[in-house]
Amino acid sequence: MGKPIFQPLPDKPDHPRLEEEVLARWNAEGTFAKLREQNAGGPTFSFFDGPVTANKPLGIHTTWGRTLKDVFQRYKALRGFDQRYQNGFDCQGLWIEVGVERELGLNSKHEIEEYGLERFAAKCREAVVKYSEQLWEGSKRLGQWMDWGRDYFTFSDVNIEYVWRMLKTVHDRDWLYLGHRSTEWCPRCGTSISQHELIGSYVDRADPSLFVRFPLLERPGEFLVIWTTTPWTLPANVAAAVNPDAEYGRRANGEWVAAARYPDEKLADTRKGSELVGWTYRGPFDDLAPAAGVEHRVIPWDEVSMDEGTGVVHIAPGCGGEDFELAGVNGLPVIQPVDESGRFYDSFGWLHGMSTTEAAEQIIGNLEEKGVLVEAGLHEHRYPECWRCHTPLIFRIADDWFISVRDLRQQMLDANATVEWTPAYMGKRMDDWLNNMGDWNISRRRYYGLPLPFYPCACGHLNVIGSRAELEERAVSGLEQLEELRRPWIDRVPVRCAECGEPVERVKEVGDVWLDAGIVPFSTLGWQNETAVPGGYGSGAAKGLTTADLPDHAYWEKWFPADWVSEMREQIRLWFYSQLFMSVVLTGKAPFRRVLGYEKMLDETGREMHGSWGNTIEANDAFNRMGADVMRWQFAGQAPDRDLLFGFGPAEEVKRKLLTFWNSVKFFVDYANIAGFEPKWAELEPDATEPLDRWLVERTHAFVADATAGYERWLAADVVRDFEAYLDDLSNWYIRRSRRRFWDEDAAALHTLWYALVQTLRVLAPILPFITDELWRTLVLDGPESVHLAGWPEVGEPDRALLDEIAEVRRVVELGRQARSASGIKLRQPLRRLVVEGARVDGHREEIADELRVKEIELGAVEAVELHVKPHLPALGPKLGKELGAVRAALAAGEFEELEGGRFRVLGHELEPDEVLVERGGKEGWAVASGDGVTVALDLALDDALLLEGEAYDLIHRVNTLRKEQGFEISDRIVLTVPPEMSALVDAHGEWIADDVLATEIRVGAELAAEKS
Ligand SMILES: [Zn+2]
Ligand SMILES: [Zn+2]
User: Fold this and answer.
1) Ligand nearest to the CA of 474
2) 143, 266, 414, 516: which sits with the fewest CB atoms below 10 Å from its CB?
3) Distance 455 CA to ligand 2 centre (A)
4) Is 239 helix (H, G, I), strand (E, B) or coil?
5) Predicted structure pTM score
6) Ligand nearest to C-alpha 192
7) How far is CA 208 from CA 205, 305, 858, in A?
8) How far is CA 611 from CA 523, 601, 614, 617, in A?
9) How far is the CA of 500 from the centre of ligand 2 (A)?
10) What angle do CA 976, 979, 983 make, to 5 degrees?
11) Per-residue pLDDT reduced to its tens digit, 548-569
C-alpha cells in the first residue's frame, strides 16, 4: 500500500497534546495574522474587551468569559468582519494594592506610607507586569485570539488623562460636589466604598445583640430600652427614636417599649410615640468626654420598625447613614467615634485605639457594671463586608467626591433602552439599577490609583485639571520629577488657582477603579484626539508594556459604539454601568449596541467554588486534564440565563460526544484511504442522487442554517444543542445506514460524508478551534490551510419537508427500538412484522424494516394495544365511596367503555381523565410503544427460519469481534472456520455470512477461527 491520501487518525484524541501542537502550528504559520489580513478592509464588527484585573493568574471563571468573547469574535471573523482584538488589563486600585500589601506584609495605610509611596508604586507595577504575563499565557492556551502585546493598561497616563477630561466635563456641568455624609467604610483599607461595590458583598455573620436601658431624666426609675447589634456605636449615641404613630407603654420594671413588640405583656401608662418625643435620658457613655455635654432626647421617626428590637431605636449619627440624615433633620450633634482605620479616637478614654470588634466586649462589660445592660446574646444576620479584603464594613462620616446623577439618570435610562440585552432580563436589571442608583462616590483614600485632578483653593474656587497639557501649563513647580500622573509624584505639583492665582495642592484622594475601566471606549479609540500617535497609548506606567497606539478621532468614529460586549452579570452595576455613565456624559449615547451577560459558575455539584472548600479548579489544571476545547464546549454549551456547573465530571461527558464525532471522521478517513477517494476543495458540495445522500446534504444545510441563527442570537448554547442533534443524525443514521456502501467503496457516499464533516468543522471552529483545525488539516487536502481561514459555509435553503419526513422515519425506528427493548428480544434476532400507526413513512418501509430487523412493515391501526384502566384512588375514592370496590373490579376485568376525551364509562359511572390511571401495553405476543401521536407494535412470534437467521447474525457479530481482536485491517479478507454444529447454519446462510465478514471461504473445523486468506 502506498502513502494514504488522508493522514490516519489515532483511536481517540489526546486533547491537551493535540492543542499544544495546533498552537505551535498557528504560531509557526502566523494563522491569526493571515486571518486579520484576509478580513482587513471588510465590514467592521466592533468589540470592546472588559479589562481583567492583573492581580492573579488566569482564573477559571475568567476562562468562561474569555471563551464567549473568542467564540463570537471568531465567528464574525469567519464571516469576513474586520475587527479590533484589543485585550485590556485593570492595573490600579484596591485590588492591586491589597495584593501587594499582603506580599509585603503591610497591614495599614500607616505602614504603606512608612514603606514609601515610590517603592509601593513600583511594587504595584511589578505585580501588574507579572500577572499580565500570566494572563497572556493562560488566555493563549485557551485559544483566545487577541492582539497580545498591544493591550490597554488602565494605569497608562493616556487612560488617566481621559478620565480627567471626563471629570472636568462633569465639573463644567456642575455635577461634581464634595459630599459630607455617612458612608460604608472598610476599616482595613481605610476608605469609603461605593454603593455599586456593595453588590454581592453581604455575608452571614453572628454579631452581638444587646438590649440596653437609657434612664429617663424626668421619670426616675423609668427607662427607654433599645436594641443594637453594633455595641461600638453606643459611645456615639445622641438620641433615641420612636415611631410617633405606634403605641408605647411601661413594663412593670419601668422599661418603656413598643406595645406591638410585647403583645403578651400588660403595659402601664400606654401612649402614642409622639407623646414620648422630647423626653430626655442619660446616655450610655456620658462618662466619656465626647458625649458628656450632649443632651440626649427622644425624636420621632416614621421608619422605626415594629419587626425587631423594642420599637425604640438608638441613634448615632456618626455611625450610620439614616442616623446621619436624622441628625440633619433634628439638629442633633454628630459624634464620630473611630478613625479611618476603624479605631477609637483618643478622646474616648479607655476605649482609645481599640477596633470596633475589640471594643464590643469592653463596652458590654462596662454597661453591665453600670447596671443598664438588660440582655446580651448573639444575632445572626446578613452584613456587608469589603469585597476586596473581606473585612466587615462600618459606617463613617466622610468627605467624599460625588458625581450627581440627578440630570444623568433619565439620559442613562434612555441610552440603555437602545441596547439589546441577552438575556433580556439583564437589561431590566440595568434599568432597576439606574432607577435606584445614588450619586456616584468616586473618591478613595488610597495610593495606587487614578489621581483625582481636584485642586480646591482656600479662596473657594475648585480647580479641576482636564489634561496633562493643562497641568503643565498651570503647574507652579515639581514638573521635573513627574514620572507618572500618579502619587506620590503628582502630589508634588501644585497648580496656580484660576481665580486668585495662589498655588493650590491636589486633594489626596484617588479615583474609583471603575472610572479607569469605564473610560476605555474613549481612551483606547482616540476620542477627540487630533493626531494619531503610533505606540502612544503606552505612556506613564504602561510604558514598555504595550505597543498600542493612541489613534485619532476618525478611528473612534469608525469603532464606536461597540457592536457587542460580553461580561458576567455582576458587571451590570460595574463595568457596563461605568461605561454607560461616562459615555452618556461625553456623547449622550450608549457605548455598546448589544450585550451578552451570563450567570455564575459553580462546581459540578452546584456549590460555589471556594479556595478554602477545595473545590476550585485551576485553569492550568483544566488545560492539562481536560483540554481547552472541552472547557470551551462546557462554556459555550451553557445557557447564559442559568448557572454553569463546571467540572471534570461534565468534561468526561463532553469528551464522549467529541469522541463520537472523532470516530465519524476516523471512519471516513479509514474507508476513503481504502477506496483511494481524493476529494477536491473546488467540488465541495456533492451532486447527491441517492436519497440518503440527498438527505444528509439537506440535513447539513439545515445544521449550518440553524447554527448560524444561533450565533446571530449570541447563543452559542443553541449551536451546541443543534450540533448534538446533527451528530446523532450523522453517526446514528447516515453512517449506520450507509455502512455497506462504504465497504463497497462507494464514491458518492464518501463524497457526501466528506462534505458533511468539512461543513461541520467550519460551523464548530469558533467553539472548538483546536480539534476542528486538526481535523481540517486531515480532511481538506487542497483547500484553505486552516479552518479559521476557510470562511463561513454558504449553503442553499434546506429542504425542510424532506428533513421532516426522515425525522418521522427516525421516530418510528426509535419507537421500534423501545418496543424491542421492552420485549426482551435482542436486536440481532429478526422478527416477522411491525405495525405503524400515525406516521407517514410509506416510502421508507425498507429502511425501517432493515433498521429494526423485521421482515415486514404494516401501516395502519394498531390493534395489538391492550388498555389497562385503574382507579386513581385519591380522586375516585371520595366520589364513589362504597362503590369503589365494584368499579375497581369491573375496570380490572376490562368491563368498561372508552369515551371521547379520555373519559370512561363503567357500571353506569362516567370517569374523568384525572380519575383514572391509563396504561396502553401490548397484548400477549406483541410489544407496543408510542409517543408524539405515533404508535408501533412489534409482532414477537418466532419461527425456525427467524431463529436460524438470528443465529447467522450472532455468528457475524462474533466473527467481526474476532477480526478486531486479531488486529485485522478492515479490508483484510479471511478464511473462516466454524465448529460442526454450525454447518446447518452455513448451509442456509453461508454466502451472506461470508459476504459480511469478508470471508473468501468458510470451512468446518474444531472451533471458531479466522485467519488471513
Ligand atoms: Zn477592605
Ligand atoms: Zn483661589
Assistant:
1) 2
2) 266
3) 9
4) strand
5) 0.85
6) 1
7) 10, 19, 79
8) 36, 14, 5, 9
9) 4
10) 90
11) 999 999 999 999 999 999 999 9
